[in-house]
Design a protein that fits this description.
Blueprint lengths: L5 E8 L5 H7 L4 H9 L6 E7 L2 E8 L2 H12 L8 E3 L1 H13 L10 H15 L5 H20 L9 H12 L6 E5 L3 H11 L5 E6 L2 H10 L4 E5 L3 H7 L2 E4 L19 E5 L16 E4 L5 H10 L1 H56 L4 H31 L3 H11 L10 H7 L44 H9 L1
Parallel strand pairs: 5-6, 5-8, 6-7, 8-9, 9-10
Antiparallel strand pairs: 1-3, 1-4, 2-3
Helix pairs in contact: 4-6, 4-12, 5-6, 6-12, 7-8, 12-13, 12-14, 13-16
InterPro entries: 4pyrrol_synth_GluRdtase, 4pyrrol_synth_GluRdtase_dimer, 4pyrrol_synth_GluRdtase_N, GluRdtase_CS, GluRdtase_dimer_dom_sf, GluRdtase_N_sf, NAD(P)-bd_dom_sf, Shikm_DH/Glu-tRNA_Rdtase
Subunit structure: Homodimer.
EC number: 1.2.1.70
Length: 480
């Protein structure tokens, strides 16, 4: 059944929000967030992604207002200026920009595409993805991979982990220093590898699962040891620099545990935070979060501006392809329904004709093949013109014609023909998004309907009222 599904998205990210606001908008469990969204009236598909510098969610609904209502709870704990609500086309374009690294704090960073793939797999397991979000997300991943293989967008500093090490090297003298990395996941591993290339003398890697930390320690190019996460407070007392990047829901280092640490630089990349922000008040302790990496990332951004322009052009190209895919799928569903309806009528009438002929004379197999072939040929020729018209209607956003075809050929179809009000509702005011990101909204035909249809062509299925057939379809049928 064709339905005028529309994607609505909401994001709280580093470009508009603080670390605390991102944390407030984040769910304790992403799978639970998807389940809650799917349980919201009107929501057919749902997807969410959370990283250290963003919390985003997307839904597919029949109307844009349903999508905004479903996502409102995510924005409730956050000031309005930190929340960006995205309508249909803005959501599609943002997902491509996200995968390509254009929305990252470190322009072009590689980690986000892996995080996006993980979020997609989680959403699949939670049964949140349907045909619309599946197509949108697969296109985003494709764009992200193209951006990294066809441009220089990810050359140089490629992650927050490596940016944190650059910041640490500027803030303190790392020659002979001891560094502590909290977390042996992807970001922790990147930070460990980056700081091992500096002049540090000793590296400690703390992780809940010690074998994972051991694996990282064995691969870096400096003296490194693995410890359990419970040993992190004692290790922090000996460390000159701490880079935190675990997935712990609670603080790994409390303020009082850093009270005796002395001169210690802490860079907290985790979301939620690994280090209690109150520890910044302890003598000698300095804590930076991802907001402090702006200077580092700004330099990277400047070096990658040319590559970013190439990626923007790539996104424009892939965005148009995605919209064309959505339109083609809508037209194909209407065409499939039309042919299924015609096939039912053909089979019924051929069966009736053969029964009558059998009653008067025995039909040979050749006779039956000729009759079947004639019926197939009539169906193909009669539906060729409507098929062409439906494809053209989809390309021109003429959803009224497509919906009318569905209602004509499928008596059980209950999709409404879009009205001007419905179009206005889908074409929401997207004040928080970029000015050039316009919604994709089903649009009704502006052509005037004549006083009456032309003379009915021969060969229409029994029971079909010519008054209900769009004029252009009748004219094309007549021409055949």
């Amino acid at each position: 059944m064709i339905r005028n599904g529309v994607i609505t998205g909401v994001r709280v990210a580093h470009d508009t929000a603080t670390v605390d606001e991102i944390e407030a908008a984040s769910a304790d469990d992403v799978a639970d967030r998807i389940a809650d969204l799917l349980a919201t009236p009107g929501v057919r598909e749902a997807f969410a992604i959370q990283t250290c510098n963003r919390a985003e969610a997307y839904v597919v609904t029949d109307r844009a207002d349903q999508g905004r209502d479903a996502l409102a709870e995510i924005a409730d704990p956050v000031r309005s200026g930190a929340v960006v609500t995205m309508a249909h086309e803005a959501s599609l374009r943002h997902l491509m920009r996200l995968a390509a690294g254009l929305e990252s704090l470190v322009l072009g960073e590689d980690q986000i595409i892996g995080q996006l793939k993980d979020a997609i797999e989680l959403a699949r397991r939670a049964e949140g993805l349907g045909p619309m979000l599946e197509d949108a997300l697969m296109k985003a991943v494709h764009v992200g991979e193209r951006a990294r293989t066809e441009t220089a967008i990810n050359e140089g500093v490629v992650s927050l982990g490596s940016a944190a090490v650059t910041l640490a090297d500027r803030e303190i003298d790392l020659d002979g220093a001891t560094a502590l990395i909290l977390g042996a996941g992807e970001m922790g591993t990147i930070a460990a590898e980056a700081i091992a290339e500096t002049a540090v003398d000793r590296l400690l890697i703390a992780n809940r699962t010690i074998p994972h930390a051991t694996h990282v320690a064995d691969t870096v190019s400096t003296d490194a040891s693995a410890i359990g996460l419970s040993a992190a407070p004692a290790a922090a007392d000996r460390a000159d620099v701490v880079i935190a990047a675990t997935g712990s829901p609670d603080h790994v280092l409390a303020a009082e545990e850093l009270a005796s640490a002395g001169e210690t630089l802490c860079i907290d990349l985790a979301q939620p935070r690994d280090i209690d922000p109150a520890a910044d008040a302890e003598a000698g302790v300095t804590i930076h979060d991802i907001d402090a990496l702006e200077a580092i990332t700004a330099e990277t951004h400047a070096r990658r501006e040319d590559a970013a322009a190439e990626v923007e052009a790539m996104i424009d190209e892939e965005f148009d392809r995605l919209l064309a895919l959505f339109k083609r799928k809508r037209a194909d569903e209407a065409i499939s329904t039309m042919y299924e309806s015609a096939e039912r009528v053909k089979n019924r009438e051929v069966g009736t004709a053969m029964a009558k002929l059998d009653a008067n004379a025995e039909l040979t197999e050749t006779h039956r093949e000729v009759i079947e072939s004639l019926a197939d040929s009539l169906v193909s020729q009669l539906l060729a013109a409507p098929t062409k018209s439906l494809r053209e209607a989809a390309a021109e956003d003429d959803w009224t014609t497509i919906q009318t075809a569905m209602q004509l050929f499928n008596p059980e179809f209950d999709g409404p023909v879009p009205t001007d009000d419905a179009v206005d509702e889908l074409d929401v005011d997207n004040a928080d998004t970029e000015a050039d990101d316009n919604d994709e909204t089903p649009a009704g035909s502006d052509s005037e309907t004549p006083a009456g249809p032309p003379e009915s062509p021969a060969g229409l299925p029994d029971g079909v009222d010519p008054e209900e057939i769009p004029q252009h379809v009748l004219e094309q049928l007549s021409d055949n």
